[in-house]
Amino acid sequence: MPSNAPLFDPITIGAFEAPNRIFMAPLTRSRSEAKTNEQTGLHALYYAQRAGAGLIVGEATQISQQGQGYAWTPGIFTDAQVESWKPVTDAVHNAGGRIFCQLWHVGAISHPVFQPDGGKPVSASAWTPEGEAFVGDRHEDGPQVPFEEARALRTDEIPGLLDEFRHAAKCAAAAGFDGVEIHCANNYLVDQFIRSATNDRDDEYGGSLDNRLRLMCEIVDTVCEVLPANRVGVRLSPQGGPGGTEDANPGETYPAAAKALAGRGLAYLHVVRPNSHTGDGKDEGGDRIVHDMRAAFDGPFIANGNFQPDEAAKWISDGHADAVTFGRLFLANPDLPTRIAQDGPYNEPDEDTFYGGDAEGYTDYPSLEKVDDPLPA
Ligand SMILES: Cc1cc2nc3c(=O)[nH]c(=O)nc-3n(C[C@H](O)[C@H](O)[C@H](O)COP(=O)(O)O)c2cc1C
User: Fold this and answer.
1) Which among 308, 242, 247 has a CA at the least distance from the CA of 283?
2) Fold of 5-353
3) Which residues are catalytic?
């Protein structure tokens, strides 16, 4: 039996059956319409090419204008955005696949040029992320400009934020997604509430660990009011993401977050382990935290972060995960399951075309067999 065989065991994930455990990680590619944040026919082809994944977790998609932090990322809150996603979800379904929408609010990792009132981005507390915002053509000094200070969300603004998540979840269902993944990872808004470094609030959303986890739990429960829990997943990361801040005690915080999510019948928990792309790679205990998170959660568990197929297969056979998402490997290898089944060869990802641009570096990575354009011109 080939060593990668565990990756090809079918599995039930919430409401659907996945034919394999080779899932596609969410990948921002910054190719949506600049002003309207709508998807195009290019996205339909890109995702259809990757429909062999057991599950596609679509690129991070803002739930509101306030939630945008990068140029050319898609939204899922206007009628036109919903319409623009329909050909994408149809193309994936027609190619035999399943796709979730990753619901995203960047919090402080934004810039006034994206904010509806031109004001400060919001976060758990006032702080200024390290580094630069990717603003594209929205700023005369662009495409990258230094982050500015975010302001603390007021307690009385949180019900409105929950309404925006509820609305986006409804929009995702209307757009034909099979479910949603709530983005609580990588130091974006929900993670800014979870991490001690960015949360010094003194209301019920700050202070104790339970309080820092409250926003995540309330968002999950709000989304589960409009979608069945078995179509709702959550992504967490004990480390990494933009902005340069960390939690003081991730070994306690993130297993507690996983435990707080248990008991709801969620589709899955998806965890990014500390890795060279999203983490600083210094956390020797990274895998241990992820194993503790699996033990604390009661549903399907998806691991991610610098996995090669053989290590992914071993994690599954050792019981550390039920499925593994691949980011850069899926980006460069549209037919990744076919390639893993025959042990390669693999295309190399081209970092220069990760963010922004057109078909180059997006839909032109070769498959072993050609996939027809679902929306021919
Ligand atoms: C181009 C690129 C875009 C990404 N966009 C997202 C995103 O939209 N949402 C998210 O949660 N993670 C995002 N990530 C992180 C990936 O999902 C994943 O955690 C990371 O690439 C590590 O997995 P890998 O080693 O299999 O690539 C992105 C990573 C890359 C390389």
Assistant:
1) 247
2) TIM Barrel (3.20.20)
3) 188
